[in-house]
C-alpha cells in the first residue's frame, strides 16, 4: 500500500498530515522522494496554494503513472467559497481537460471545508465559554463553534473570506489558552489528543463532516 499525497497548503498540511497519519495509519512510513516507495510508504508534496496545485496535480499524475507503485493519489485542498462537491468537480474537470489519466492509481479528493483550520475549530476542549478577549467574545456571540458546526460558519467580516475568518477565530482561541498557533507552527493540532477530540466531535455531532472523509480514507487504507 503506497499513497501519494498532494496537499494545497504550503505549511500547515505538510506538518499536520504526517503527525495524524502516524496515529491513524501507523504502518505507513513517509519517504522524501516519490521514487523511493516500496511497501506501506507515502509521499507528501505541497501544491503551494490554489490554483498552483492544479499545475502540480498534472505533474503528480504523470509521476505516479511513471513510477507505477502507488495505490492512491490523494488531493487535499480547501473548499474556500465553493462547496465540497464543486471543488471535487473542478478537480475532475481539470484532469479531463488536460487529459491527465491515472493508469493504475485511484484518485481520492479530500476537501477541507472551507479550510483545514475549520477542522481544528472542532476541538471543544480548547474552547473557553467566557474568554477575556473582547474580540473572541464577539466571535462567539456571532457564531459559537463549540455548539454549532464550524463548517457552516460564515465570515464575520465583509472583506474577508470564510477561510480567513476561520483561521482568525482559531488563533484567538489559542491565544486565550496561551498557546501559540501559526500556519508555520501548528504543532498543537497535530498531537494525538487533539486529533482524538476532532474524531469525537464528528462522531457525537456529525459536525466537520469533511474531516470525516479524511478519517474514512485512513480507515480504508489501514485495513
Give a description of the structure.
This protein is α/β, with parallel strands linked by helices and 223 residues long. 45% of the residues lie in helices and 13% in strands. Helix 3 links the parallel strand 4 (72-78) and strand 5 (106-112). It contains 8 helices and 5 strands. It starts with a strand and ends with a helix. The chain has 2 domains: 2-116 and 209-222, 3-Layer(aba) Sandwich (Rossmann fold), CATH 3.40.50; 122-187, no CATH class. The chain has helices spanning 12-24, 52-67, 84-97, 116-120, 134-142, 162-176, 192-205, 209-222, and strands at 2-7, 29-30, 41-46, 72-78, 106-112. The model has no long low-confidence stretch (mean pLDDT 97). The longest helix has 16 residues, at 52-67. A 5-stranded parallel β-sheet has the order 2-3-1-4-5, with helices on both faces. It comes from termite gut metagenome. This is DUF4276 family protein.
Amino acid at each position: 500500500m503506497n499513497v501519494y499525497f498532494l496537499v494545497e497548503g504550503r505549511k500547515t498540511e505538510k506538518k499536520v498530515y504526517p503527525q495524524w497519519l502516524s496515529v491513524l495509519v501507523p504502518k505507513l512510513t513517509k519517504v522524501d522522494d516519490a521514487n523511493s516507495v516500496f511497501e506501506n510508504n507515502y509521499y507528501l508534496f505541497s501544491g503551494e496554494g490554489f490554483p498552483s496545485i492544479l499545475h502540480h496535480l498534472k505533474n503528480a499524475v504523470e509521476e505516479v503513472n511513471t513510477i507505477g507503485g502507488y495505490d492512491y493519489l490523494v488531493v487535499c485542498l480547501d473548499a474556500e467559497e465553493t462547496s465540497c462537491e464543486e471543488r471535487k468537480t473542478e478537480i475532475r474537470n481539470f484532469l479531463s481537460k488536460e487529459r491527465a489519466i491515472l493508469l493504475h492509481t485511484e484518485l481520492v479528493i479530500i476537501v477541507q471545508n472551507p479550510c483545514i483550520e475549520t477542522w481544528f475549530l472542532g476541538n471543544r476542549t480548547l474552547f473557553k465559554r467566557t474568554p477575556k478577549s473582547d474580540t473572541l467574545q464577539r466571535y462567539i456571540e456571532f457564531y459559537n463553534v463549540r455548539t454549532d458546526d464550524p463548517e457552516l460558519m460564515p465570515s464575520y467580516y465583509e472583506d474577508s473570506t470564510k477561510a480567513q475568518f476561520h483561521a482568525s477565530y482559531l488563533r484567538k482561541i489559542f491565544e486565550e489558552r496561551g498557546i501559540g498557533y501559526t500556519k508555520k507552527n501548528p504543532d498543537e493540532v497535530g498531537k494525538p489528543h487533539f486529533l482524538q477530540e476532532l474524531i469525537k466531535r464528528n462522531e457525537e455531532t456529525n459536525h466537520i463532516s469533511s474531516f470525516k472523509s479524511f478519517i474514512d480514507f485512513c480507515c480504508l487504507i489501514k485495513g
